[in-house]
Amino acid sequence: MRYRVTHTTAYNYQQTVGLSYNEVRMLPRPSPNQQVIDTKLQISPAPCDYRVRTDFFGNQVAWFSIREPHLTFQVTAVSEVRVIRQPAQTDLGHGIVWEAAREILRSAIGDSAVEARQYALDSPLVNADPDLAAYAQPSFVPGRSLPEAIHDLMQRIHRDFTFDPEFTNLATPLATVLEHRRGVCQDFAHLAIGCIRSQGLAARYVSGYIETLPPPGHAKLVGADASHAWFSVYLPELGWMDFDPTNNQTPGDRHIVVAWGRDYSDVTPLKGVIFGGQDHELSVSVEVENLGL
């Protein structure tokens, strides 16, 4: 399936900003399941310096500075991608047992396992925790296949937690999300990653977009989509498999990947340093347009 994604982030400042340095991770990354046909950033005011690099995790990062005084700042990423549907995992019970996968990670057998091992460690926003291990335990019964265990965990998170965009922000601890059973897609991805790492397994955070469909009989509103987040688990000998607990599904051809890392802090869409500005208003608009096959 082919998509055009338009993602705009705009700041209106109370006072003039004299100088800013910025990093943007809004350019989709190519992969065997995703072809990037075209992608570009539109930046206002125009930057003085601009370059694109690949970060440690293989994500595309645009770096730029703005040195003219400004009261407004806007970044728009316009990308066209083709997403290839991943093969369906029809029999989740036929896969490596999760205890065996943990031992492979511990002994780091093979290059892919060595690379994946970093995703089993604590990260800035996600730490293995006894409470997370306790929540995960019913999914990780002895002798269960790893795909089946992760699929069960995804279903439980979808069933047990309420999507509530007013309850959390980026500073809300996972312990609070677990206690109140509320949050958004970023929280549910972090929660699943923490549960999986608490079992000694490797999981990474994936940021991107998902094609949303309007209610029957209603037109889709321009800019009404949003950034999305899910998680991916390392399966020895098979590679990485994605799971979306917010929507209780394994991503197919409606999920568009932008970046991945240990947690959200590795894939923040826009961050930087400004001099001036004081208070500000932030607006974000995302449109995912289906262009057909």
From TrEMBL:
Residues annotated as transmembrane: none
SMART domains: TGc
UniProt xrefs under Pfam families: Bact_transglu_N (PF08379), Transglut_core (PF01841)
Matching PANTHER family: BLR2979 PROTEIN, BLR5614 PROTEIN-RELATED
Protein name stated in the entry: Transglutaminase
Organism: Methylomonas koyamae
